[in-house]
Amino acid sequence: MVQTYYSVRPADCCSSTSNEFILDIDQLPTGTLTSVTDTTVCSGKQILLKVHMTGAPRWTLVYNENSNQVTVSKIATADTVIKLSLQRQVP
Asked: Global pTM?
């Protein structure tokens, strides 16, 4: 987190400084994805993936599973595991 100190001054710059305040700026989040289980993926079987996130907690993770969008909200820990069940696509 970056803390920046600001002070508010009147427009005429002749008066004294008014209230000071601190603005906290959180880093932009990043994420990495790694396999927790065997990397062989078979239709109908589950695969576990670990997602490691940086930045401020309470992340929202959005991913697609079998063409369906899945949203996981309010993630409070930097490491979370998601379970995917892959289905074979029929042409």
From this structure: 0.60
